[in-house]
Write a structure and sequence with these properties.
The protein contains ten helices and two strands, in the order αααααααββααα. The protein has a two-stranded antiparallel ribbon with strand order 1-2. It has helices at about 5-20, 20-40, 45-55, 70-80, 85-90, 110-120, 125-135, 145-160, 165-180, 195; strands at about 140, 145. It is about 60% helix and about 0% strand.
């Protein structure tokens, strides 16, 4: 099954009927951020980036969960032959390639945990992985926001485990990386970010 923008939109829409929640609108804003930034990067397709952003949390279709949504999303995409999207379903949560830097709870079987541990360690990240990692931190369900607002949003919901500060530093590093690639401030590419950040 070919992955294209319309297919990704339909899959997200259907997933939202199975497990309604703020994650659906968050995913849409992640996708738009990916699209806008990728459009300024020579080595990236804006359409592909948009698809990966839409699908990064697709595993939430299976119901309310913590880290289980990562492997649920991986399997969802692999069943459709979308290998890169499947990787991003897991990699978006691990900007540091170490499963122990997770901020969630591993509500998965021991077998699934071991699979994810090996997968994260051995995954070869490219700019699509990095872009979704960044854009995941630029989007609330209500729209785009400064990274620091999203950091606080996540910390209030998940707490501040030991890897919190290293993860923040890595995301800030990704922002600088993509600003070099786009030749300007990332925030300038995200319409409404000022209004939503200070709402």
């Amino acid at each position: 099954m070919e992955l294209n923008c319309r297919r990704a939109e339909l899959e997200l829409e259907h997933a939202g009927t199975l497990n309604p929640g703020a994650w659906v609108e968050h995913s849409r804003f992640v996708a738009l951020a990916c699209q806008n930034i990728a459009a300024r990067c020579e080595n990236l397709s804006a359409d592909q980036a948009y698809c990966f952003g839409l699908l990064h949390d697709i595993g939430r279709y299976a119901g309310i969960s913590s880290e289980r949504h990562l492997i649920d999303g991986y399997r969802f995409c692999m069943e459709r032959g979308w290998e890169k999207a499947a990787q991003i379903c897991i990699s978006h949560a691990f900007m540091i390639q170490d499963i122990h830097t997770s901020i969630g709870t591993f509500d998965v079987s021991e077998e699934d945990y071991r699979f994810m541990e090996t997968f994260v360690k051995n995954a070869v990240y490219d700019d699509y992985d990095r872009l979704v990692q960044l854009c995941d931190a630029l989007a609330l369900p209500s729209g785009f926001c400064l990274l620091e607002k999203r950091f606080v949003d996540v910390a209030l919901r998940y707490g501040t485990p030991p890897a919190t500060i290293p993860r923040w530093k890595k995301i800030l590093e990704l922002r600088r990386y993509f600003e070099e690639k786009t030749g300007g401030a990332i925030y300038a590419l995200l319409p409404g970010i000022v209004e939503n950040t200070f709402a």
